[in-house]
Amino acid sequence: MHGGPASPGWLLVALCAATGAYCLLRMRSPVEEQRRAAGGEALMGFGMAAMAVPAAVFTPPSWAWPVYAGVFGAAALRALWGARRTPHHLHHLLGTAAMVYMALAMAASPAHHHHEHGNSGVPLVTGALLLYFAGYVLLSGIRLMPVTGAVGGGVGGAIGGRGSVGWGDRPELARACRLSMGIGMVAMLLTL
User: Fold this and answer.
1) pTM for this structure?
2) Which end of the chain, C or N, has fewer beta carbons within 10 A?
3) 90 is a domain residue
4) Closest Cα partner for 51 from 92, 90, 107?
5) How many domains does the chain have?
6) DSSP symbol at 167
7) In this structure, is residue 180 part of a structural domain?
8) Which spans in 83-123 are helix H?
9) Does a structural domain hold residue 152?
């Protein structure tokens, strides 16, 4: 995450920070479940942005990685608690667990020494996480494709005169937000 070229790193920082900012705006939704999900996604977006800052600009102190692991460990426990009522929290659980895994991997290996012990190939956990998030990105991308023959109710998704849906409550924007974070997670896992 901190050892690659600067340009792709900055693109990843921008993608994750913009996603986190949009998720903060989604927290203003009148729907409680949407606010709760948006809060967790904002934490993920900003956490991913912070982890993706190129090392040439800023190398975090050694104590930062255990702090990341602790913050995302707490978020994973919260997602685990929420998974008992909503299956979508399982995805949040895997995302926060992946963040804990990456933080611990960065804490365990100093910069530029990721493969110093002759460890060739992709570790099993990294590979499993890559497969999951690559599949998630593909499925999320398919879900964003427009459905032909769908009847829309105008700008904002108002159907049958029920009023317009605020831009922060539009499901396709929330899906695009999750897709962006999935892409960011794949990029971060590839550089691990």
Assistant:
1) 0.78
2) C
3) yes
4) 107
5) 1
6) G
7) yes
8) 88-108
9) no
